[in-house]
Structure formats: structure tokens, C-alpha cells
Amino acid sequence: MTTTALRTAAARASDLSKVYGSGDTRVTALDHVSVDFYRGEFTAIMGPSGSGKSTLMHCMAGLDSVSAGSARIGDVELNGLKDKALTKLRRDQIGFVFQAFNLLPTLTALENITLPMDIAGRKVDKAWLDRVIATVGLADRLGHRPSQLSGGQQQRVACARALASRPEIIFADEPTGNLDSRSGAEILGFLRSSVRELGQTIVMVTHDPVAASYADRVVFLADGRIVDELHAPTADSVLDRMRAFDAKGRTS
Amino acid sequence: MFKTALRNVLSHKGRLLMTMLAVVLGTAFVAGTLVFSDSVSTALKNSLSHNYDHVSARVENSAAGEGRRAADNNSDNKPLTDATLRRIKALPGTATAVGTVQGFAGISDPNGNLIGQRGSTQGTNWSPDSGGTDPRYPMAQGTGPNSATQVAIDQRTAQKNGFKVGDTLRVAVNGPVMQLTVSGIFTSNDPALNADGSLVLFDTATAQKLYTAPGQYAWIDAQAKPGTSQTALEQEMEQVVPHTGNITLHTGAALTADAKTAVENGSSSMKTALLFFAGIALFVGIFLISNTFTMLIAQRTRELALMRALGASRKQVRRSVLWEALVVGFTASAVGLGVGVGIGAALKAWAGSSGNIPAGGLTVTPSTALITLAVGTVVTALAALFPALRASRVPPVAAMSSNDQPASQKSLVVRNSIGLVLAGLGVGVVLLGVSQGGSSGRMPVALGALLVMLGVFVLTPLLSRPLIAAVGPLFRRLFGISGTLAKQNAIRNPRRTAATASALTIGVTLITALTVIGSSITTTITHQVTSNMKADYAVSSELGYPITPTLVSEVKSAKGVSAASVIDSQYVTLDGKQLSLSGFDAATFDQVVAPDLTSGTTDAFKQGQLLIDADQAGSRGLHVGSSVPVEYPNGTSGTLTVGGVYPKSDLLGPAMLSEQALAGHTTAPFYNVVLVKSDDGASTANEQALRDATGLNPLIKVQSQQQMIDQFSSLISMMLTILYALLGMAVLIAILGVVNTLAMSVFERKRELGMLRAVGLDKRGVKRMVRLESVVIAVFGAAMGVGIGTFLAWAANNLLKSDLSGLTTVLPWSRLALFIALGATVGLLAALWPARRAARLDILGAIKTD
Ligand SMILES: Nc1ncnc2c1ncn2[C@@H]1O[C@H](COP(=O)(O)OP(=O)(O)OP(=O)(O)O)[C@@H](O)[C@H]1O
Ligand SMILES: [Mg+2]
């Protein structure tokens, strides 16, 4: 449904490298990675453990500095930005869903959802907020605190928070990693519909081929490099690709 | 278990640092106090030991000198005379013997003001030996006094005031001022001089006239010939001195021992007072220590549960925590001991520099070390007791739970009920004490105060929620999301917030109570002085001797005086009960005082009727028009009519009668005070005119209304300053407590902070959030302290009422507001480091799931 001609990048990595440590303990987590995350698209990042998925996401989201190359959100080059500007960028342009511990225990669900707007001191768009809350199906739980919500509900609140401020792009690191398959499916379906219906851009890191199948496109990372890409994935096609890497990895 | 404890201590070094610091400060205060007071008393004792170097035995007349008047009437007493001295000198064992008289001697500066403080300026006799010198007082310049018009003065006083040989010195002992010529300036190592006093020497005959009687001594010191022991000489002297109750004999060794005991008693009361404040500091420390251990254990819940799951018994877990506390307590106490020795040395140097204490080394006794170590260790272990018990109750299954947060707080119902009972009981007991009033109310009020404080501490978690939540909307409006989060964080762990705030509450309660009492007393005194006194000056005597009639008339005729009245203090028996009665001059009465008569008139007073204060009138059932029988001091009796009733006043006394009506019925007038009204109010010229009229007598005090108020309020404010300084240590420890709590909270909420930073809260926002949390906790603690302190001050004032009539509780609002503001400042300061730490937090490190 997306045509190449209309695709513009919401975020772009070019020649992005990230090196941890030095000398003996030197680890190249990202090795000259170039990849575009297109607007209005749901992209999944897959790869073996330690391949650099989280690192790529952190660099793209302005949570971590890059060693070389460039990371852009829209037109903004992140490499070289000061903490203050990065903070503002995260607040206004980026949404986050982490694997766990997304919410402040002292705030209610609703307060957690509006937190980024409260931090920015921005007015909440009431109509949009209602739509987001309706989409996540949390209307009757807004006054509860995180400890009174199930894990799946907590993740839904986190998704609503990421959506509510209408960021340029949402990054999700294994958002279903801690959930059973049913709650996971709920979240994933919800993320996909927010892309389809609300026009949101989402980048999601996952280990699960089924989760990846919800995405429009899957990018494969191995040893800090982009090794493959798959459009309109299904669980089976993703699994096939991964087997192929494994086989290659073993033979090489 | 000991090994586990040791490893825990080492691995939590940073976190235990605050606890250590609290114990160090508390124990350093204790050790400093002990070292300082021991050193001072050792130094004093050393300087004393040389005092009696030349005294082998002393015979003393206890009825001579300052206590003379009372004993004079006892005809059995025999004096120590020149004849006694001669007989002692003639004893076979005597090498030399000297007779001494001594007493107060007021020296005047050029304006007629007394030099030094009353009691610290002494006069004694110069007893030259055959060579014309007195070894006790070597002359630096000039010669000793050889006639009634000469005087010698100590070098320090002379230098301080610029007195030179040949100058005229004004000296008064108990009567009129004497103008004497300075014949010499001497040096001396008399301890009285070391302690900032003055000493003048008269020739023996003059001194005897002034202090005892011609030819009489207060004591005679004899030095033994080589080979004669002190006791042998004492026994020889026994044969030649009078044998009446007032004559006592002592050896030099006994005198030294007595003096040392006196020094010990003096320094032990100072020690007790200082240790009281050290105790408060340690008590505050308990809150901090207990809080730290609670937090450490909350953080280690899983670790402890694992130990239990692996088979450690409850007892072992408990022991391991207690061992940890003992290690921490002992180490910190040892450091505290070291710091305390430093504090003691600094205090000693400071006290020494102001000239009050003879020089000498530091005294660190083994008991100081033992006490300090024991106190610090025991206090730490005690504070860790509850946390240790809680640790032992961690169930093994907690090891399996994936819960990040410490287990949810148990219900506070039991705690709140206990708190309510304690606080309620405390308030009740305080009120009971207040209603009893006076000294009988003292015990209940003290007990009640303790209960109230305990109760409030127990209740603080309950109080913290609504009180802190109340500022929520304000915080949200002012500081946005940081404010909201800060408020939420402050109430999310009520126990911890409560313990942190309570530590501050203790200090602020005491400071507030003292301040309110001080300001109430000052205000009351000021009110009494200004409302009843119309006179510009009160002229009184420095030593409580009455003012002589001659002096009264000199004052009355001084330049600028428009009206003056004596206050003649007499005791009469009114209707069978004693009454202190003040005689005022009828003619000038209205010009010098203004009693707020509630009934009657001052005209009635002028016609010889009695004015009486409301308390006396009430207890005796008197009112205007009552006639009562009276017995006067000279034995005559009559009838007095009550002419007016006024509210109780310290200036006016319980009852007033015109001097004209009173004078004929006394044995002698006792003019305590002369009240003086000047033509043009109080002025330097008028004051000097009054001083001149007294012949610049240093024993006569001329005070304007303002000076009377100032003298008093400066006394109060000086006392408050000292108490503030002593309580400062407790407040400092409380600040450490706030720092500690915040640091722990930041550590525990690492993930939350990381998440907040990820979703866009900037560093400033994070800092502000931590700071506001700190301010909320600190202000909460301070506000509770101000509240309790005010209540206790009110109770104390009600007790003091019986000693200070008309005492009402006055709230020094600006001071109280200042305490709250200081609380906020404390909060800000305490948050400096934790807030920086929170802002510097590595976002990725914080959000990574382990
Ligand atoms: N702070 C760090 N310091 C040093 N090395 C790091 C750090 N963070 C990540 N690495 C290394 O960088 C590489 C990539 O890590 P990254 O967390 O991006 O992997 P991942 O693909 O997200 O793995 P997983 O699927 O297990 O989450 C790994 O080899 C890791 O050890
Ligand atoms: Mg990862």
C-alpha cells in the first residue's frame, strides 16, 4: 500500500557507528549502519542477541551518543546536539515504549499518559487524547495507579502515552517481551492500527517473528550491520530469513 | 554472620557514610564536651595547686568578711586579731605568717562606671615582710600602699584602663567612693585575676577597716619551718587560736583539695549542661541511623530473602544487621572521638583566648574514650534494632518476586492509634500541669511535653499525607509537573518522610520554644517597665546595699532632675500575714510611676491609704475601702485603709504606701531605688549629671528605661544565641538526615528518573523535582517543630507566670516565619548533592532492565 515515491524518512541513520569502550574491551555495537525509517510506516528491527538493535534504537532516539556518522529525526541532526536540545527533541518529537517499567508509580494512568505534555507545559488536545484512550481501550482505568493495572494494561498505558503527544516517531524496545501472547497481540494490533489509522511512525525492536509480522517492513541486524530487509512480512517469512542467517553464521 | 555483616558494611560504604557522619557528629559533641571540661578543670586545678605553695596551714574566721553581718550578732564568736598573728609567728614551727582580709572593691572608670563585673573585682591587704615586699604581689612599678590614701592595682587592669602610678583611682567598697592614689602596679598569678578579674591592694589597716574591723583578719596563713610538717604546724596553731565555732584550721593540702573539689563541682555542672545538648544531637542521630538501616534493608530485601531461602535463620539475619550496626557505630565513634578531641582543643583555645581560663594541655581521660565509644556504638545498635527485626521478617519467597519496589507499606493503623493516645495523653498532662501552675506544675508539663513529642513522632506519617498533599495544588501551579512529582514523592513513603522530618522537628521545637519564651519574657518586662514607669532613670546600688539618705538628697538635687522618689522596701504584717511594702514619695508619685489602678485613686494614696496589687487583694479578700490592722517594722501597729487596687507589677511591688505615712514606723529606711524624672527626658547629659551627683561612685547604677530594657533583652538574646549554637549540632545532623533520605530516594528511583529523562524532563526539571521534595520534607519538619514548640512555650510561660507577674505568651511572628524559611533553606541545601546526582544519572543505565 505504500509506494516508494511517497515515502519520506521520519528518521535516518547514515554511516552510523557506535563503539563502546576502548582497547581490549572495545566493542563495535554498530558498524556503519545506514537505514531509513519511513513516515507512516511500522518498521521492526530484528537480529540475534547482541547484534546492536537496542543500540541503534537508543542512538536514533537521542538517548545515546553516536561515535561516527549521522542520526537524524526529521531534519534534525542528533550527532552533536547538547543534552538540553536532545531532551527537548525527545519530549516533543519522540515517543517511547520500553520493555518494562514505563510508568511512574505515583501517577494515575491518565497522568502518566499526559506526562510528556505536562513536562512540556503544553495543552492537551482533548479530542485526540479521547481518541487515543478509546483506541487503547482504557477509558475505565484512567484513575488507577500502575500497581493496580495488569502488565498488558500497563503497556497499553505506555503506548497511549507515546501516542498522546503526537510525536514524529515512536520507538518501542521489545514492548511485548514481558507479556503473554494474548496481551502481546493486543498491543501489537494496537500499534499497527495507530500506524494505519492515525498515521503514526513506529520503530519496534523485537525477537519474536510473530511480533515482527505486524510490521510493514523488517530490518535485520547482525554484528552491528544491516544484513537484510523484508517487506510485508509474515511470521513464516521472517522465521525463514532468520534460519538462513543462522545457517550462514554457522557455516562462515 | 559477622563476615556477611562486614562485607555489607564495606559494599555499602557510600550509603553508610551519612549514618557514620551522624554518629561522628553526635559522639564528637560528647567527646568534645568531656575533653573540654576535663581540660578546663585540670588547668584550673593546676593553677590552684600553686596557690597554696606558701601556705602550710591556715586559720580562718568564717564570720569575717562578706558573711560578717549575719554572724556579727553572735556574741560567742571571737575574731582573729593582730595578737593571734603575733602568737602564730612566735610558734616554734612557723617560718612566716601573714594575715589577710579580702572583699569586694568596686573600681570606677573615668565616667563613674564599674570596671568588670560585680564579684570579680576584689580588694585585699598588702602585707610587706621585713624587706618591704610582699612575695604574693611583686611590684612591677612603684611601691605597695603605705597609707590610707594609697592603693596598688594589678597590671592587667591598669593596662586595660590606662591607670598609671600617681593617678587617682575611685574605689568604693560598701559606702561612699574613696579617691585614692595609685602607689604601685603589681603582677600576680592569683586565679581570680586569670579569670578576667581585678585586684586592688590597700594597706592592712585600711583593708581591715573596710572589710573586717581594725586589727582583725579574715584568715592567717603560716608557712612551716623546714622539718615541720603541715599537720604539726596545724597542731601548734591549734594551741594559740581562739576556740569558737567560727574559727577553723586547715592544712595547705586540705585547702588545695577543697579548692579542687570546688572546681570539679563547677565544671561538672557545665559538663552536664553540654552533655544534655550532645544527648539531643545523638537522639536526632537515632532517627537518621534508623532511617538509613531501614532503607538499606528495603534495598536488600531480595538478598536477605535469598539468604533465608538458602537456610539462614531469622536470628542469623537479625544478627547480621545488628553486627553491621555495631561495626558502623564503633568505627564512627572512634572517628567521633578523634574529632571530639579536636573540638575540645578548639574550644579550649577559644576560651583561653578570651582570658577566662588558665593555660594548660588537653586532658583526654580513658573514661572519655570509653564513654564516647560505648555511647556511639550503643546508640547505633539501638537505632538499628527495629530495622533488624524487620529484616528478619523478610519471607524467603520475596527472593522470587520480581517486584522492583519495596513491599508495600504495612497499614499504619496500630501506629496511628498509639500516636494518638500518646499525643492526647501528653496534651492532657501538659494542660493539667498548666492548670496547677507554679512549681507543682513543672513535673506534669515536662512529662507531658515528652509524651506530646513522642506522640507526634509516632503520628508524623499520618500527618504527613494531608499536610503535604495540601500544598499539592500550589506546587502544581508554581512548578508544574516537577512540583506535582515532588509532592507525590514526598508522601509515597510516609514512614521515611516522617523519620526524616522528625529529626528536624526536634531541633526546631526546642529552638522555637526557647525563642517564644524569651520573646514573651522580654515583651512582658518591656511592657512592665514602660507602662508603669514614668521616671526616666532608676538609680540603684550595685550590690544590693541600700542607698544612703545623703545620696538620695544628692540625686534629688542633681542638675536636670524635675522629680524624684525613693522606693523604700519594708516588710510589714498586714492582718497577720507578711507583706512586702514599698514606700514612695507622695508628692512626686504621679510623676515617676503610673499604676493602672483597676479601682481607687492615687489621691487616696497621697492621703496615706494603701495601694495593693490584685493578687494580694484577691488572696486577702481586700477591696477599696477595706480597713486592715497592720504591724510596722518598728513594732508599732495601726490600721490601714485600702485606697486602690492595681495589676501585679514587679516594678511597683505587691503593695505601696506613701513614704510620709511609712517613714515614722520603720527602724531605718531601706532605699532600694531612687526613681528620677528629668526635665527633658533621658539624655547623656542628664545621665552624667546623675553620676556626678553620686560622686562617680562605681557602686551606684544609673539606668534609663531603655537601658533597663536593653540590659534585660541583651541578656535574653545572649542566652538564646548560646542555645541556638548548642542546638545547631542537632539541626546539622537533621540536615544530614535529609541528604541521606534524598540520596537513597534518588538511588531507588533510578529507573523512574531515567524514564522521566527519556520522555523529555530536562536536567533542570529533575533537579527541581528533587529539591522541591527536599523542601517539602524540611518545611514539614520545621512547621511541626514551630507548632509543638509554641505549644510547649505557652505551657512553660504559664508555669513561669508565678515568678514573673503578667507573663503572657507573645509569638514572635517574624522569627517563627524565619524558622520555616530556614527549614526551606535547609531543604534546598540538603538537596544540592542528591539533585545533582539525579540530574547526572545515565538515562540508558537507568532504564535498562536487568
Ligand atoms: N554500555 C555498553 N558498554 C559496552 N558494551 C555495550 C554497552 N551496551 C551494549 N554493549 C554491547 O554492544 C553490543 C550491542 O548491544 P545491544 O544492547 O544493542 O544488543 P541487542 O541487539 O539489543 O541485544 P538483545 O537482543 O540481547 O537486547 C553488544 O555486544 C553489547 O555487549
Ligand atoms: Mg536489546
Automatic annotation (TrEMBL), chain A:
It comes from the Bacteria. GO terms for molecular function: ATP binding; ATP hydrolysis activity; transmembrane transporter activity. InterPro entries: AAA+_ATPase, ABC_transporter-like_ATP-bd, ABC_transpr_LolD-like, MacB-like_ATP-bd, P-loop_NTPase. Keywords: ATP-binding, Nucleotide-binding, Transport. Transmembrane segments: none annotated. PANTHER family: ABC TRANSPORTER RELATED, IMPORT ATP-BINDING PROTEIN. This is ABC transporter ATP-binding protein.
From TrEMBL, chain B:
The chain crosses the membrane at residues 274-298, 321-347, 367-391, 412-434, 446-468, 497-521, 722-747, 774-796, 816-835. GO terms for cellular component: plasma membrane. It is a multi-pass membrane protein. It is found in: Cell membrane. Pfam families: FtsX, MacB_PCD. Residues 60-81 are annotated as: Disordered. Keywords: Cell membrane, Membrane, Transmembrane, Transmembrane helix. It comes from the Bacteria. Residues 276-396, 726-842 form the ABC3 transporter permease C-terminal domain. Residues 17-239, 497-685 form the MacB-like periplasmic core domain. Belongs to the ABC-4 integral membrane protein family. This is ABC transporter. It comes from Streptacidiphilus pinicola. The lineage of its organism: Bacteria, Bacillati, Actinomycetota, Actinomycetes, Kitasatosporales.
